[in-house]
Amino acid sequence: MKRLLVEGIGTFFLVLVIGLTVIPPGAALMAPLAIGATLMVMVYAGGPISGGHYNPAVTLAVWMRGACPARDVPGYVGAQVAGAALAALAVKRLAQGREVAAMQLDAPAALLAELLFTFALAYVVLNVATAKKTAGNSYFGLAIGFTVMAGAYAAGRISGGVFNPAAAVGLTLIGMSAAANLWIFLAANLAGGALAAMAFRTIHADAGDPASLE
């Protein structure tokens, strides 16, 4: 339960900051920095307890990599989605009176952008937070947060820079993304996480890293 609570709290604050900094007037060009910084500090805070996933695509990648037991996956995803949903309620209350408009997406471009940058995020997570050669490093949170920040700056105008199925659910509940577009994030983000795990296992096959915990 402690791990699930940590996952819920971390996802809550991530989605809370996304909503409050992106909804106009928000933080404008500084929004990606705030979002990346929030993820960074939450990863540092919760990493030693739950692994600091805050993202079903990351949980999928860590499970496929062999660093998360299958029995933990449903609880992690449930806690992440619950945290995102609670954050959506908080954003709607705190941003009351501010105009919320759903993103207009070009589906093929959004799919590609979300796939590529979710892959990058999960790939970085696996290499800085689960690989034996980087065990005990002090930069894992910084690397993960900066990956999201870079992705948000690069793909924000294409897909919204979500890279997270739980966050996509939260943004849909807020009204920042249309329900009809939710499949884009679910498909692209989960595929990106799975591909990152496959790449990690291929690259680290000779190092003994991909051994399953089960």
Describe the structure in brief:
With 214 residues, the protein is an all-alpha fold. 69% of the residues lie in helices and 0% in strands.
Which second-level CATH architecture applies? Answer: Up-down Bundle
What is the CATH T-level topology?
Answer: Glycerol uptake facilitator protein
CATH class: Mainly Alpha
Cα-based radius of gyration, to the nearest Å: 16 Å
Number of DSSP-assigned strands: 0
Number of helices: 8
What fraction of the residues are assigned to beta strands by DSSP?
under 5%
Number of domains: 1
What does this structure look like?
The chain is an all-alpha fold and 214 residues long. The chain has a single domain (2-207), classed as Glycerol uptake facilitator protein (Up-down Bundle), CATH 1.20.1080.10. The chain has 8 helices and no strands. It has helices spanning 2-22, 31-50, 56-65, 73-94, 107-129, 140-159, 165-174, 182-203. It is globular, with a radius of gyration of 16 Å.
